[in-house]
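Quick log. Single chain, no ligands specified.
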Amino acid sequence: MRSLASVACAAGLLGASGSAWAQCTVSSQPIAFGVYDPLQAAPAIAMGSVSVDCGSGGGRPWLRVELDTGSSGTYASRTLRNGGDVLLYNLFIDPTHTMVWGNGSGGSQAVEFQRGPPGQGPDFRPIYARLPAGQNAAAGTYSDTIVVTLIF
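-> predicted structure:
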């Protein structure tokens, strides 16, 4: 028997800082899929974002943002969990959901970009999320925590 499941994905944070080059902070906007209907033919789509602010300090102009696998341990499919129940999902760099955002291993890619000029404010990068249709899930709240790592 299939039932409606309320699911949400929360992005966890790991801020990075350095003393010789710059001090940066990382923040995120959590991803929320809302109510998941396993009978819906289309996948559930959601968005979040990662924000990197290196302030007015000097430092390297290029930044790399990596996302870990969360509770799944793999980039093939991340997992939202509610106790022993699981829903598969993934996080992507692109709105067409073809490039899995990770650390460059297991078929994933990290995001590298040139930071804005000092004092310009934070650099935002969207996170595109997809929860495939047709997954049989028990009702409840599902979540996962993703660690964001900034390399600069």
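Residues 69 and 75 are 6 Å apart (CA to CA).
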